[in-house]
Q: What sequence folds into this?
């Protein structure tokens, strides 16, 4: 099979890898970049999580990954390639006749690759190697079925014909991107040389396929996508990653062919166009996950081209979402679409906050931090990580939430292990393998402490180990201990979160300047073996309104969103674990109490701490009864309320009489 490449040929790359496996085995820290990054994250293999909620989440995810059978994931690929498969087909979106079949294998490859780096557990590499062998066999066999060389998918190539003819077809390029990304991750994290060969052949097919499409047909196909059906430009991110690995700039050129200018030209000029060109009714805005995936592509294009168009568009998108369009948990969209920022009250539905969006926003946030380190990015990252991502994993079975409902009185529903395979299952598999990624970052002279998560960092380049011990957020203290036998001079940059007024820092017991909230404290010194840094992060209860609606409020304690525990009567297993996520809409709902308070600025004074950490109970203002608040990330199998109606006593009076009559 001919491999076209302007960079080093694949065989040379493979030979280099065999000659120097240690060098090639080290995963890229944050993707290679032509633009100098101001800070880089550490490779996942350099950070080990210690006991805490994120390690628990990672373990549950690891158990789920190991429970899946590679032959079942490969089944539809083999059928499509005319190869025998006796495996039992998977269900949900992986059914053999489902239009997006095959994407889960790509995300499973990524998740196992991350998990291998994050844990060093060889079982994940074995899974990856088995799948890569299977995919390579399929790619080799597909031309015998009439497909073009390099094509690799579990569905026929005619799906791409349909896309190019502007016919209705659900997201074939989205699926191909997941497969290509999985191959690249397998190469980066598991040093699988065949993965790179398969990826290069696939990317060459992509490039040839896009090049043969006349420009007007290409623009028409890309621009006329109905929201939610496309998600095609996402492939640009993987193509740029592959260009960085192989040196083949053709993939960068191809990535640019996917750009939707109707979306990104306004964003690059700082304009908000997310309500969409289809009008301003509730379901007509731009698609959340589609746009954030495309934005990640543009962010990656900035890193290899340095063009301000890409950076401006990415930063505008981030600010619009994080500052104006997100709910308190960091999630955004209703029925997967953006809506006018004045209309939040109409959008407390059962289908808010698709979890994929937030995973992809976390990835975008890491990039923006790398370009220009600042607490703004990581304050938001922390909020979304605890209150959406961690909250979206079932603590019993490790399954995943699709829509994180902001409807007061709703509850969380989860996937099933083998019969759901929604998009949010794919991203869920990945995200819990990556918790080690954003805790720390570095440049030549600085070590950034971004997140307060128990962990151990090995900064190999400087011969330093850092151990972070904390029970945060259940406790407000963090201790870092340095192991640096030769002593080392660098600046420890400690995030001083915007919520942590009065934060203190001590080095070996001696207080030092902790800087301002919403910035980084700069601790420059010669660090010695055994040096200790102790942080205290005061948290307090506060409210935050639904954007534009001061009479609907959410509660936070530090960065942690608190939600009301409203009981579980009537919630059964059939409501909790779903094959079709849409059936959640038919599940029961509770009626949440309201909060009656004549001075909303005094609301938090009417709450007392409960016995458990991070828990509070209202004192006489909950009507018809008082309410208990607990961390939203720990609230499962119960009716919940993140947002509460706040009424004056005059407004409550008629309702109180109505309740008494009932
Ligand atoms: Zn999703």
A:
């Amino acid at each position: 099979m001919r491999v076209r490449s302007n960079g080093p040929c694949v065989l040379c790359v493979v030979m280099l890898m065999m000659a120097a496996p240690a060098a090639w085995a080290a995963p890229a820290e944050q993707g290679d970049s032509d633009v100098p990054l101001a800070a880089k994250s550490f490779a996942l293999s350099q950070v080990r999580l210690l006991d805490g909620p994120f390690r628990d989440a990672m373990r549950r995810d690891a158990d789920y990954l190991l429970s899946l059978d590679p032959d079942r994931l490969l089944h539809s690929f083999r059928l499509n390639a005319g190869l025998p498969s006796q495996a039992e087909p998977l269900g949900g979106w992986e059914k053999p006749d489902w239009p997006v079949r095959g994407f889960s294998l790509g995300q499973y490859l990524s998740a196992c690759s991350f998990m291998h780096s994050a844990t060093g557990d060889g079982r994940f590499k074995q899974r990856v190697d088995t799948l890569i062998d299977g995919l390579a066999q399929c790619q080799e066999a597909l031309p015998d079925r009439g497909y073009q060389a390099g094509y690799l998918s579990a569905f026929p190539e005619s799906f791409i014909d349909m896309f190019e003819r502007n016919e209705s077809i659900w997201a074939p390029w989205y699926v191909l991107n997941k497969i290509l990304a999985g191959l690249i991750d397998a190469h980066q994290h598991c040093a699988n040389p065949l993965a790179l060969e398969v990826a290069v052949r696939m990317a060459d097919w992509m490039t040839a396929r896009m090049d043969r499409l006349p420009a007007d047909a290409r623009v028409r196909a890309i621009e006329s996508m109905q929201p939610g059906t496309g998600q095609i430009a996402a492939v640009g991110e993987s193509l740029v990653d592959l260009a960085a690995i192989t040196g083949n700039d053709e993939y960068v050129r191809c990535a640019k062919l996917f750009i939707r200018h109707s979306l990104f030209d306004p964003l690059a000029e700082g304009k908000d166009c997310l309500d969409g060109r289809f009008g301003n009714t509730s379901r007509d805005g731009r698609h959340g996950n589609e746009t954030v995936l495309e934005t990640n592509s543009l962010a990656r294009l900035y890193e290899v081209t340095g063009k301000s168009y890409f950076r401006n568009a990415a930063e505008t998108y981030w600010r619009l979402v994080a500052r104006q369009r997100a709910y308190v948990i960091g999630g955004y969209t209703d029925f997967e679409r953006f809506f006018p920022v004045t209309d939040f009250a109409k959008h407390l539905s059962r289908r808010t906050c698709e979890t994929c969006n937030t995973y992809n926003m976390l990835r975008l946030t890491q990039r923006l931090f790398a370009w220009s380190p600042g607490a703004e990015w990581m304050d938001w990252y922390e909020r979304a990580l605890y209150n959406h991502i961690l909250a979206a994993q079932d603590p019993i079975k490790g399954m995943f939430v699709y829509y994180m409902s902001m409807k007061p009185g709703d509850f969380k529903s989860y996937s099933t292990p083998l019969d759901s395979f929604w998009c949010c299952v794919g991203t869920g598999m990945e995200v819990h393998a990556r918790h080690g990624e954003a805790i720390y970052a570095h440049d030549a002279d600085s070590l950034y402490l971004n997140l307060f998560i128990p962990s151990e960092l090995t900064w190999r380049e400087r011969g330093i180990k850092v151990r972070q011990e904390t029970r945060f957020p259940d406790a407000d203290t963090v201790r870092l201990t340095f192991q640096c036998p030769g002593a080392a001079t660098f600046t420890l940059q400690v995030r001083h979160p915007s919520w942590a007024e009065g934060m203190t820092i001590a080095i070996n017991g001696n207080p030092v300047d902790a800087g301002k909230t919403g910035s980084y404290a700069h601790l420059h010194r010669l660090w010695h073996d055994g040096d200790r840094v102790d942080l205290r992060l005061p948290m307090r209860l506060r409210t935050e309104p639904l954007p534009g609606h001061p009479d609907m409020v959410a509660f936070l304690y530090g960065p942690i969103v608190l939600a009301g525990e409203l009981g579980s009567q009537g919630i059964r297993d059939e409501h909790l674990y779903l094959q079709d996520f849409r059936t959640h809409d038919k599940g029961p709902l509770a009626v949440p109490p309201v909060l009656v308070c004549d001075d909303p600025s005094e609301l938090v004074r009417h709450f007392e701490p409960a016995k458990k950490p991070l828990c509070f109970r209202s004192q006489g203002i909950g009507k018809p009864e008082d309410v208990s608040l607990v961390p939203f990330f720990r609230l499962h199998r119960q009716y919940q309320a993140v947002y509460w109606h706040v009424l004056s006593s005059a407004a409550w009076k008629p309702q109180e009489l109505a309740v008494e009559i009932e």
Notes: The first strand starts at residue 40 and ends at 41. The domain at 442-536 is CATH 2.60.40 (Immunoglobulin-like). The two ends are 76 Å apart (CA to CA). Residues 1-31, 278-282 have pLDDT under 50 and may be disordered.
